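== Sequence and structure of one protein ==
=== Format: two labelled lines per protein ===
==== Data for this protein ====
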Amino acid sequence: MSSPRKEAAEPKLMASALDAVVGMNHEGQITAWNARATEMFGWTADEVIGRPMDSVLLPERYRAAHRAGLERYLTTGEARILERRIELEALHRSGSEIPIELAVVALQRNGHREFSGFIRDLSRERAALAALRESEERFRMLVERLPGIAYIDEPGAFGRYISPQVESLLGYSASEWLQSSERWVEALHPEDRDRAIAELASGEESGQRFTSEYRLIARDGRTVWIRDEMTPTRDADGRLLVHGVMFDVTREKEIEAELAAEVAERAEVATALSTFHGGHDAQSTAAALCREMIRLRNLDIAVIYAFQGDSVVPLAIVAPPGAPIAVGRPLPHDRAAYLRTGAARGPWIDEWREGPAASDYVRAWLEVGLRVGAYVPLTTSGVPYGLLVGGSTAELGGGQMGRVLPALLEFATVANAVLGPQLHRLAGELHVSALRELIASGGLRTVFQPVVRLHDRAVIGYEALTRFTDGSSPLQRFAEAEQAGLAVDLERAAVASAVAAASSLPRGPWLSINISPAVLPELQQLAALAGHADRPLVVEITERMAIDDYSAARRLLRRHLPEARVAVDDAGAGFASLRHIAELRPAIVKLDMQLVRNVHRDPAREALVAGMVHFAAASGCELIAEGIETEQERRALLRLGVTLGQGFLLGRPDAVIAAA
């Protein structure tokens, strides 16, 4: 039996307790409830005393077990939760659950068992623990995502922790790496071991962050360059630890070595080329250049080609036996056409791979081992006259071969200076001969592209365009003719062909012929041919070539073609832009197709076209949009005020257009 003094002290003890204290009698009813219990669960003592404890504090899932346990204890004395700490959830007045720690003691009072529960709220601990776990997980994920191996070592590289990246980089699992206290020392490259150990010791002694670069030997024998960023620290007990990250810098070191080798190679090339004088003829000069080219790293094939007429002919070759080319023997037509087309664009790289459509020529090169080639055009005044080629039988990609291009460009510069004049004389003679033959044999024809009103597509004129029967590029042919001094002859043939072919056109629409500024001084000859046209004539002056004397150009046009209207072609794409138009004062201005392309979805192009419309209106000339290919472009141009146009949407160039 409790003494009166003890019973009087109990309420004071409950009130001052830091934990919630809840009393319960043998019938499971609440008999005591301190202020901390009110704070924790939201009920006042008056509200809960006398009520069943399980309905007030226990979630539904615990209640049956509670009642069974109470009955078992009262009947048999068997206790499962008395005088030990357990963790579970309790109910708050709001219905939410609170994680708690519970300790229960049993007392004998007035012949009956009573129970006191001491309850501690674990919410903050649980939240702190969850936050700690989340922080640890974030840190673990951060460490494992580092582009390197994070580690913590004791002095002397004795490992305490290492991140999982060690396995992917060096082939050891984290546990294997930490099993041996000498693992790092053993993995050091023999040539770096003493230096790296000394740098580590010095850095640890300094107490400052330091960096060391060295090589490690991976488990599979690979050499891995490491940049080790280390920071000495001290733990809570004052012991020295080294926190660091090992970064794989192998590729950086390889690039540094490659760059150093390239610099040395370029210096060697520059020295060799500075004293290069060539041979007595084109073939001997080309052969000497090829011998120098294969001194470049990774190159074991060198060829110099000359463009002779429509042919591409090897001048000099260094290649493995079985290569499908020979000095002086023209390449197959398809291959020659491919090389000429590529040379017109500039340097390029080809990777050679077997394919179902590979030609016999390609297969022959593959059989001798060619895997990648770099091609550098040899040019005079922008016109290719040959090709310098370096190839490799090594398994190199285009990117690796691209590093050879700068050196090959230097070779091309020397070739242009030494070999160029030799080939130019030969090529010039061949060009002139081929062009004369082309003109004399009638190897060109005329096609016509309609110019229409955009709103109803009615044809108002036809532009005569020259095509060559051998399939060669008109732009290239006219450039070659100008270089060979045959521009007047070729344009005279083109005008004659256009006037003759125009007789098949429907009556009414005008005929437009193209004339370059280069032939204006000889305009009288062309005018005599154009005078035979049976319809109004438009003379288009291309804007892609400069005019040195605008006044002279205007005089020549007025004198020899007084009835013809003048048009400026490719406005916005060439030499003099709006000045070209202002000086020539044309009746027609033709917008370059690059301004027209996708004008319906490009505000900048719309603004430029609108400006040209205003300019044309102010200048009193008509505006024709070239290169219209979609209905959206046609509608956008109409909306912007352009009324005339031509392009594939409105009519492709055709050799014969039936009379209406």
